[in-house]
Amino acid sequence: MDTLVMKEEQGQVVYEKSGAILREGGLVAFPTETVYGLGGNALDKSASQKIYTAKGRPSDNPLIVHICNEEMMLPLVAYIPEKAKLLMDSFWPGPLTLIFKKTEFVPYETTGGLDTVAIRFPSHICARKIIECAGVPIAAPSANVSGRPSPTMADHVVEDMNGRIDMIVDGGSVGIGVESTIVDVSGELPMILRPGSITKEMIEQVIGSVKMDEAITKKVSDTVAPKAPGMKYRHYAPKAPLTIVSGNEELVASKILDIIKEKKEENQMVGIICTNQTKSFYTEKKDDLNNMVIKVIGDKQDSKQIAHNLYHVLRAFDSENVSIIVSEHISTGILKDAIENRLMKAAGHKIIYV
Ligand code: TXA
Ligand code: MG
Known about the structure:
Elements: E1 4-7, H1 12-23, E2 28-30, E3 37-41, H2 45-55, E4 64-66, H3 82-91, E5 96-101, E6 116-120, H4 125-134, E7 138-139, H5 154-161, E8 167-170, E9 181-184, E10 191-194, H6 200-207, E11 211-212, E12 242-246, H7 249-265, E13 270-274, H8 279-283, E14 292-296, H9 303-316, E15 324-328, H10 336-346, E16 351-353
């Protein structure tokens, strides 16, 4: 059966309908300022299990618990460290998730068996209204099938979740486009487990030095477990394999053109991810090399725009007949860490240096 889709602009009726479904143990996908989330009652273990089933997600990968005011988290966390309080005061509501020691109220089904719980207070009004109407904290991973790019518009959620969940709230295209920054404040030293639009520099301005989990930049080996279990899976991936080419702009373009030539001999189409500034390297060869599909991810200097378009571009290649995708290495601007991390994971860390 098709999933009920309602437009956010209908307002209160949508919030109330969503809230009622969530309270009764059902699943509702809704927009947040980062990506669309797939919500269920965080305190109901069977709702959490339904989330894992709908996403096809391994059950050792914990869910983020979303709240609509700070009081809502008090029964869920053992204590709030001083540095966490400072971060909450500076960045909540907003795209920052904090990891705390959990209380017995939070079922292990929600935390993937961990004794810690991830808490996020989103700034998106629709998300907050829905949580408020539900009256319970809401576990919400990104609303994609496990391993696929996170949804940044309701159509993406319909693609992945139609028939698998009770309701989808269509709030249009999201603002940020990459998931929240995750900071673990449950240990001695705060540690960034996932980079996002709240950057390391912004965090350090508030609480002083923080570490970055090694797994963010390096390919995680079987022996080093990343602190955020979700970071160990291949992720954010389009259907065709993705390779990143890194180095000087012109050398990168010429390497990518070489790949396209090779694939032309094999009668294969190649997807290219480039910027407004580098697009012409490819378009000027279009007459000879008619086996390329070019997608511009944004302006080279505008990392917010690139983050906003990233998952949309990755998903858009799924409806093109390409056998591989090649992306220029994108690493500029304040969202550099977040973009690099998502691209590298989408590529399974396949990168060619020129
Ligand atoms: O922006 C976001 O955070 C979005 C929106 C919907 O709010 N949600 C999101 O959830 O990205 P998800 O499930 O796709 O990613 C959650 C990440 C995973 O990598 C998971 O391993 C990590 O958070 N995580 C959750 N609880 C954790 C915990 N207790 N300790 C360490 N990592 C945790
Ligand atoms: Mg996700």
